[in-house]
Design brief:
The protein has five helices and four strands, in the order E-H-E-H-H-E-H-E-H. By secondary structure, it is of the alpha/beta class. It has a single domain, classed as Rossmann fold, CATH 3.40.50. The chain has a four-stranded parallel beta sheet.
């Protein structure tokens, strides 16, 4: 059996987008990939992200909000940033075989408006991330 390839999703606070990406990759490609996520800072798991993911059938409630681990970063086969700030400030990846990509998604935690409007924004970002993860798994990168 081949070893699972490590995908490390990075964001600023590791509270929403990177957590969603980790959850979807575990659900959709957990047989091929090991998914981890982290942030430049740890802002805690956003409860709205947990609810939005639960609606999609993925429980991320047990995941933790972590800061970037240099060891994981340098073991990763893929380092994928999900926000511009993380892309610009990601520590150097010393693994010459690692693939580094940037998949930019708006931060749903910055949504304003009514609770329904904010929830809708979380769902939009969740669905966009799910679609991108599904394509990644399908392409077998």
């Amino acid at each position: 059996m081949d070893q699972k390839r490590l995908v490390y999703f990075l964001c600023t606070g590791n509270s929403c987008r990177s957590q969603m990406a980790e959850g979807f990759l575990k659900a959709l490609g957990g047989d091929k990939y090991e998914a981890k996520s982290a942030g430049l800072e740890a802002h805690g798991l956003n409860p709205r992200a947990v609810r939005a993911m639960k609606e999609a059938g993925v429980d991320i409630g047990g995941q933790t909000s972590d800061v970037i681990d240099p060891d994981l970063l340098n073991k990763a086969d893929y380092v994928i940033t999900l926000c511009g700030h993380a892309d610009e400030h990601c520590p150097a990846v010393s693994n010459p075989n690692a693939v580094k990509w940037h998949w930019g998604f708006d931060d749903p935690a910055k949504a304003t408006g009514t609770e329904e409007e904010i929830t809708a924004r979380f769902r939009e970002v969740r669905d966009a991330i799910q679609s991108r993860i599904a394509r990644f798994v399908e392409e077998g990168k």
